[in-house]
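User: Design a sequence. Structure:
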């Protein structure tokens, strides 16, 4: 087996391979979109002779982390031919990808897992979680928060990146786990005209609250603008699609599917949810990817009207260079702990490491050093014992602040040798808002 760069000349072969493995098919437009996506990726092919039997690609993302952002490899198109399973193809693909991540200065890798058990073996931990919510909109949405009464307007999807981009960037700054978007990503991934999973859904609709106003046309519920609408940043926006179920016995009212909703205040969020739940000829609002600390559940006056239908893992994260990753994020409290880490992929990642960090900077993650027997100027004593024993998977899961080591101790996944060590590290990793991921890839 040979693991090497997949050349542009093999892109169509790679797509045929991926569609086979994922039991998928694509029309000409979707195939072009997937081809363009692969062109933007680092690509590794597994070859048996000249036959392509495995594929892995990585988007060069900028991922928001607490207090900043860092380069990240967004794994996608990972697939092994059904004739070559359990022959080390996936291991070889990822080994080669990790080598390239190091060369590209990417200290973390992220992915969406179709099979969680597989990627846990390679050190990926669940770094963000999400819930799905359903609103009964056959009656007015009851809220405990007075909605922001600034005007709403519908924005042409072609103009949406310019209008929504500043607010999206501002929300990335306060919520970890989100990738930076360019115009191509907005167009192809966020606002494609057709939804690949449900062709009965409408094209994307974009509604914004506040901000500038351009030339508008009165539509009753909102205003629609064909321009960027001034230079002020909206207070909030929602991206959604609709589907009309039509008349007939046993047929429910139409559906509003919310793909994205961002707001800078609770009142702005209330205004957007009220709008979505009041669209004519619809009776259900579904949002499938909301952060676990979304204020909607608290602001709903009737939880029978607003209910959680699912909670699930979302983005998986793998620490490739823990020292660089820890240095890139902010810390909520000072911490000094020794971690006994196991890493089945990188031999250098296994061992005893002392992590020191705090709000004032000066992050250090290095092999465990001796404890001073006398003091700062005295001779070195025995090696400092570990406070916590854990795997790189658990360390990656808590990196963005979305998982608590205390819960992992209770589950038997982490061993605490020093009382309250897990709580102290949790306090240092804590974030004001839970991490949340919007973009699938």
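Assistant: Done.
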């Amino acid at each position: 087996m040979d693991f090497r760069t997949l050349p542009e000349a093999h892109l169509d072969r790679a797509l045929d391979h991926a569609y086979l493995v994922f039991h998928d098919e694509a029309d000409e437009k979707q195939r072009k979109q997937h081809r363009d996506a692969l062109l933007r990726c680092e690509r590794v092919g597994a070859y048996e002779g000249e036959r392509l039997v495995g594929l892995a690609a990585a988007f060069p993302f900028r991922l928001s982390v607490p207090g900043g952002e860092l380069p990240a490899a967004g794994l996608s198109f990972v697939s092994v031919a059904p004739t070559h399973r359990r022959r080390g193809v996936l291991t070889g693909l990822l080994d080669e990808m990790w080598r390239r991540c190091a060369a590209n200065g990417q200290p973390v890798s992220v992915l969406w897992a179709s099979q969680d058990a597989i990627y846990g073996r390679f050190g990926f931990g669940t770094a963000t979680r999400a819930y799905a919510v359903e609103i009964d909109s056959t009656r007015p949405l009851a809220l405990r928060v007075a909605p922001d009464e600034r005007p709403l307007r519908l924005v042409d999807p072609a103009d949406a990146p310019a209008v929504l981009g500043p607010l999206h960037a501002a929300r990335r700054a306060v919520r970890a786990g989100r990738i930076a978007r360019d115009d191509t990503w907005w167009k192809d991934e966020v606002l494609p005209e057709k939804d690949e999973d449900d062709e009965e859904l409408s094209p994307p609709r974009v509604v914004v609250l506040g901000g500038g106003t351009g030339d508008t046309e009165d539509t009753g519920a909102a205003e629609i603008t064909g321009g960027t609408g001034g230079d002020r940043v909206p207070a909030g926006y929602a991206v959604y699609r609709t589907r009309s179920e039509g008349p007939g016995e046993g047929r429910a009212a139409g559906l509003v599917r919310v793909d994205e909703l961002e707001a800078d205040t609770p009142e702005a969020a209330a205004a957007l949810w009220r709008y979505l739940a009041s669209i004519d000829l619809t009776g259900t609002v579904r949002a499938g990817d909301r952060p676990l600390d979304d204020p909607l559940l608290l602001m709903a006056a009737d939880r029978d009207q607003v209910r959680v239908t699912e909670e699930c893992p979302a983005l998986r994260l793998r620490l490739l260079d823990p020292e660089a990753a820890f240095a890139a994020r902010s810390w909520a409290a000072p911490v000094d702990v020794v971690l006994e880490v196991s890493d089945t992929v990188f031999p250098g990642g296994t061992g005893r490491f002392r992590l020191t960090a705090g709000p004032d900077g000066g992050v250090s993650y290095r092999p465990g050093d001796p404890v001073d027997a006398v003091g700062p100027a005295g001779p070195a004593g025995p090696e400092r014992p570990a406070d916590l024993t854990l795997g790189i998977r658990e360390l990656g899961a808590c990196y963005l602040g979305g998982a608590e080591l205390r819960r992992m101790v209770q589950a038997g996944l982490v061993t605490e040798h020093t009382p309250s060590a897990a709580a102290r590290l949790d306090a240092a990793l804590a974030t004001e808002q839970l991490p949340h991921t919007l973009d699938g890839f």
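Residues 89-103 form the longest helix (15 residues). The chain is about 25% helix and 30% strand.
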